[in-house]
Specification:
CATH topology: Thiol Ester Dehydrase, Chain A
Order of helices and strands: EHEEEEE
Structural class: mainly beta
Distance between the termini: 9 Å
Oligomer: single chain
Number of domains: 1
Strand content: 35-45%
CATH superfamily: Hotdog Thioesterase
Largest sheet: 6 strands, antiparallel
CATH architecture: Roll
Amino acid sequence: DGGDYGKGYVEAELDINPDLWFFQCHFIGDPVMPGCLGLDAMWQLVGFYLGWIGGPGKGRALGVGEVKFTGQVTPDVKKVVYKVHLKRVINRKLVMGIADGVLEADGEVIYTCQDMRVGLFGGAATVEPSAA
């Protein structure tokens, strides 16, 4: 339950400090967290949610409908917050979650994702219908 669609919600935080590995190499002289790391973190949270409700197997990103970057995570940012709203959980041969998400940097939304898709592989689909 919860989230914008009543199907589930996951939130995670990352404290940012200027010594994080990616600032040293991406980009030299213009440090910024790679956007793909923020997107991957949100995909990971969809997979985490599927496991948390009892889905078996290993999570794999299957795609995303749309991603928009309107800002950057730079060394002066203090905290990143990932917010993922499940739209649908499919419980068949494949357990799959579809979700929208945002990344906030110090309270400002700078990434938005629509229709992130994550599937669980390598286990039998046994998620209780009430959990999905």
